[in-house]
Amino acid sequence: MKFNWISTAEADDTLKKRCIELEYQLRPKITRFLMARLEQECCGDFSCFYFDVNLETRQISIANKTPVRYTRRIAFDFDREINQQSLVHSDK
């Protein structure tokens, strides 16, 4: 899986460190979410999944590069389980 970091701020060392910390928090949570729903029917290592992480709005979305067949299957639950309980929301 890949994360696209969306921010209007300059990518200084502080922002880069924050992105790394967020990725370490988000990756296991999203991996568990995907395994529970798609483990038997997708790319195995989840390398075909892309996520946009907007650091200003604090929202995580399934990026357009993710295959549509998977996006359709997980979109509703993803928003409810990942965005509503996301570590992005608790990190300042």
What does this structure look like?
This protein has 92 residues and is α+β, with helices and mostly antiparallel strands. It has one domain (2-90). Helix content is 50%, strand content 15%. It contains three helices and three strands, in the order βαββαα. Strands 1-2-3 form a three-stranded mixed β-sheet. α1 crosses α2 (68-83). The chain is elongated and about 40 Å long. The two termini are 24 Å apart. The mean pLDDT is 87.
What keywords describe this structure?
92 residues; elongated
Secondary-structure blueprint:
Layout: E1 2-6, H1 13-38, E2 50-54, E3 59-62, H2 68-83, H3 87-90
Parallel strand pairs: 1-2
Antiparallel strand pairs: 2-3
Low-confidence stretches: none
Task: Report how far apart the termini are.
Answer: 24 Å
Residues in β-strands, percent: 15-25%
Using DSSP, what is the number of strands?
3
Number of domains: 1
Q: Which whole number gives the mean pLDDT?
A: 87
Order of SSEs = EHEEHH
Can you count the helices? 3
Please give the order of strands in the largest beta sheet. Answer: 1-2-3
Structure at a glance:
With 92 residues, the chain is α+β, with helices and mostly antiparallel strands.
